[in-house]
Amino acid sequence: MKETKRKQVLGGSHLGALEELLSDMKYGSITLIIQDGKIIQMDKTEKFRIKD
């Protein structure tokens, strides 16, 4: 079986941006868009719970 090299996908700047997105989110999701083994976009969808 051929071994493949693993790329570092989450570099320092990406990791910092991801931590910033997560820091104030209570409910929601973050989607990472990858192209050619690199993160090219981060989408944040935040949910707000409304209590009656």
Structure described in brief:
With 52 residues, the chain is an alpha+beta fold. 23% of the residues lie in helices and 33% in strands.
Q: What does this protein structure show overall?
A:
This protein starts with 11 loop residues before the first helix and ends in a 6-residue tail after the last strand. The model has no long low-confidence stretch (mean pLDDT 86). It is elongated, with a radius of gyration of 15 Å. Strands 1-2 form a two-stranded antiparallel ribbon. A hairpin with a 2-residue loop joins strand 1 and strand 2. The protein has 52 residues and is α+β, with helices and mostly antiparallel strands. The chain has one helix spanning 12-23; strands at residues 28-35, 38-46.
Could you say which overall geometry the principal axes of the C-alpha atoms support? elongated
Low-confidence stretches are none
| Spatial order of strands in the largest sheet | 1-2
Q: Overall mean pLDDT score?
A: 86
Biggest pleated sheet:
2 strands, antiparallel
- Which structural class best describes the helix and strand composition? alpha+beta
